[in-house]
């Protein structure tokens, strides 16, 4: 692009004429004459041209129009099957089998009134407000710490008058500790403020860019920008959630009435309470406000009609396996819970294929679930009536939480953990392990459990039964099943459950009306147990052969 402020067309002829307008479709600044000529061409009349006098011409906002993988090719297509903006070269090499590819100008039609635009803008506003409130909260906390320091100093002087000569040395010690506490907490809070301001400034800048493109840019520019910002907004959403979670209300208190011995006098303490600023992540919706040819976007996933065996996982040699459950982390590490009496371990397989490491337990474990969006998983320890957290980055054990009943099945969302076990008990915990709620539905031992936060329902697997119950414990549906085996679901919310004694895996529709057998003995299913899909729902992992092996299936 030519020097800021000059007409790009004239600059190619070594003329320096001031630009008065800008065309977003041509990506060129235009002088008055060139702008007039531009408007004479019928094919260019639909272009988005703005008057530079109405905006800061040195701060024009652009969405990238060239492909990341083919730098010389313009982004001009949208693949509905993969929900990605791409160029014709991408279509030719990576999307040849995709049936739903639209020209970008068609896909971006009505984007300014789409759910995608609304969700991104609203989500940014929501996060900006939360971060602004969080800054105010942090500042208020700093002021309260300063006031408490002054107040506690007066309390310390009152105590001093009741003590003998040793109190002089004690006062100095207390004052130093108080200053250290205040300083250390202030340092941490100020660091939090810096981090918050960094994210806040970035969000505001992004919001300004989106609003600018909404008001002045083309629909294509805005559409591309929104799709480029969507993963960033998702990532920022998790950062904001983590920032609010990490922010604590810090207060310093002083107990002047405490019974003490002069040599062990330690009345200063700091308390940590949950931050008063609350944040609930908004859920994104995919923009679907397109004309009739783009209604295919509602059908974002293909229906699984048939499975075929892909491979058998190569397990570590010379191990007495009794694999009960399995789960997959966000970075594609397969976790296998092995509850053999002699070998109680959580095995880790990199890329869901290669053995990487193992974590030892000193009591039997049964269920395992990954907490989405965090580098954490959680396992059940039935004999200890407990659950234990796992750091999935370092693959180390973390804190144990006593849930006060013999627990087996476990599932986790972004902010809650659900544990099932004896007497049909289901307990809800937050991601720190605090028990929030407990229900009983009298269904016997719950070996496996799924949750549906939208419908507020659990899918639970007991002996010979698959049940759907509301979060309050009332039963909604019931289906017969053989023995005990796992349960999972695909992205269309169909349920898949195993039949241990009849050697089958069946699929049940979300309304519990249609039930079909997808895998059986012909597909090498032999006493199946735990099961789960991988992160893109392209493969089904099944514990098989009396809990001794893991088979992987793909759908045709």
UniProtKB/TrEMBL annotation:
<keyword id="KW-0863">Zinc-finger</keyword>
<dbReference type="GO" id="GO:0008270">
    <property type="term" value="F:zinc ion binding"/>
</dbReference>
<dbReference type="InterPro" id="IPR047153">
    <property type="entry name" value="TRIM45/56/19-like"/>
</dbReference>
<keyword id="KW-0862">Zinc</keyword>
<dbReference type="InterPro" id="IPR000315">
    <property type="entry name" value="Znf_B-box"/>
</dbReference>
<keyword id="KW-0175">Coiled coil</keyword>
<keyword id="KW-0479">Metal-binding</keyword>
<feature type="domain" description="B box-type">
    <location>
        <begin position="2"/>
        <end position="52"/>
    </location>
</feature>
<feature type="coiled-coil region">
    <location>
        <begin position="153"/>
        <end position="184"/>
    </location>
</feature>
<protein>
    <recommendedName>
        <fullName>B box-type domain-containing protein</fullName>
    </recommendedName>
</protein>
